[in-house]
Design goal:
Blueprint: H1 2-13, H2 29-35, H3 51-59, H4 73-85, H5 91-99, H6 107-131, H7 137-186
Helix pairs in contact: 1-6, 4-6
Length: about 190
């Protein structure tokens, strides 16, 4: 089937830009929005990012704040990861995952790790399609869906564990803020 062959080729070949290929000048929001489709593996034109989405990701702490009104490589890297992962994880879960990364990891390293893991996952899927040429497209879709389900179950359990680890820290911050407000009210 020609469509499956084209899909397999797309999965095996298309990748987001490497860190060094990302714009090395700061971009305004409209430039970021027009740049992001180059970063995505797209199958239809409806998959677009909007400025409201970017602002929400920043508000949720998943993407760093802009430097003034300018966005750099780090922002594009985080947005690339968020846009790809939001198909399988909630923004809250993506935030948990990002916060679990060791302190001091720089955006270039994180983006390199993300693109390396993405490359591995896309290649595995493309290879599994190649070895499944003699099964029906429906059975192939079922196998891919079930693998996705199993991977997502494992991922969500790990994220739940990470959330439990970060909750005490959040509770500490809340208690400190509460005490600070109480002191201010007493004055």
């Amino acid at each position: 089937m020609e469509e499956l062959k084209l899909l397999q080729e797309k999965l095996a070949q298309e990748r987001p830009m490497a860190w060094e290929e990302l714009p090395d000048i700061a971009l305004y929001m409209d430039q970021v929005i027009s740049y992001m489709p180059r970063q995505m593996l797209r199958f239809d034109e409806d998959e677009q990012i909007t400025s409201a989405m970017v602002n929400n990701y920043i508000k949720d702490g998943v993407v760093p704040r802009a430097d003034g009104k300018r966005y750099g490589r780090a922002h594009i890297g985080f947005l690339t990861a968020v846009c790809m992962m939001k198909r399988v994880l909630s923004v809250r879960e993506i935030g948990t995952l990002f916060r679990a990364v060791p302190e001091g990891s720089d955006p270039q390293q994180l983006y390199g790790y993300f693109t390396s893991e993405l490359d591995t996952a896309l290649n595995k899927t493309a290879q599994s399609m190649e070895t499944a040429e003699d099964i029906s497209p429906a059975r192939l879709a079922l196998a891919l869906a079930l693998r996705s389900y199993a991977d997502q179950l494992a991922c969500r359990q790990i994220l739940a564990s990470l959330r439990q680890d970060e909750e005490p820290e959040e509770q500490k911050k809340e208690k400190k803020e509460k005490k600070k407000k109480e002191k201010q009210q007493q004055l």
